Predict the 3D structure of the following.
Amino acid sequence: MSSSRERVLARIRTALADVPLAASDPPVRRGYLPAHIPEDRATLLTVLAENLTDYRAVVHRSTAADLPGLIAHRLRAHGSRSVAVPADLPPGWLDALHDIQVVTDSAELTAGRLDAVDSVLTGCTLAVAETGTVVLDAGPAQGRRVLTLVPDHHLCVVRADQVVASLPRALPLLDPTRPQTWISGPSATSDIELDRVEGVHGPRGLEVVLVG
């Protein structure tokens, strides 16, 4: 075993003998298409909506001006009496929540307290049209990861400029050191008999508002 290992390592050293120590890795040529759909905004939003719906998320379209009213309408339609929000949520989003208690995220907001909150409202980092996926990384308007895992209903706002076509388009935009949550529909799992159970690892209900 030792001699085989040394032979392999010797071949690697020989192959790298003419490579300067300070040289950066050369770009890797990818033999695949970075996206399989047209990347105009209208197509991206349409494909994202179709794939989210296929994963049993409820999708709405809105303008920026109509967003506060739609948020309030959807929370009331769900029967929510309280909603958890990130501390840096755009203030205009809450303008129509006159009859719903707003619980702002903080270190004191424990999982136990969150369990008593009906809904959570957040933004996102980006969304992937081809896979129907919304990505959160605890960035602006997203709060801590626990915020979107405990309440039973998640209302997520996605701006049109946050939608990319594919995973190869998305990955270079993400910081791998941040706590990422990838969401494709409500939380669900199936047992060996394929009986679907929702809400095991996160919210049983996901609503996505596409703005733009």
